[in-house]
Description:
Blueprint: E1 2-8, E2 11-16, H1 53-59
Antiparallel strand pairs: 1-2
Protein name: Alcohol dehydrogenase
Keywords: Oxidoreductase
GO molecular function: alcohol dehydrogenase (NAD+) activity
Amino acid sequence: MKTYTYVKPGLASFVDVDKPVIRKPTDAIVRIVKYYLWNRPPYYQRGCSCLPKWYHSWSRRDWDC
């Protein structure tokens, strides 16, 4: 199956991955059919490293930087 993946900061593409498998009773497979990022700057999709410093001051906990 294909998934939209952030390969590295500034590069996102569709990548072939294995189908997900439930291994434990607490696992879940979730399909996102629609999302909307309200009031997010356009560089949101470019990856964490290109965000301005002021943006990190309030949303740092949301990123794996």
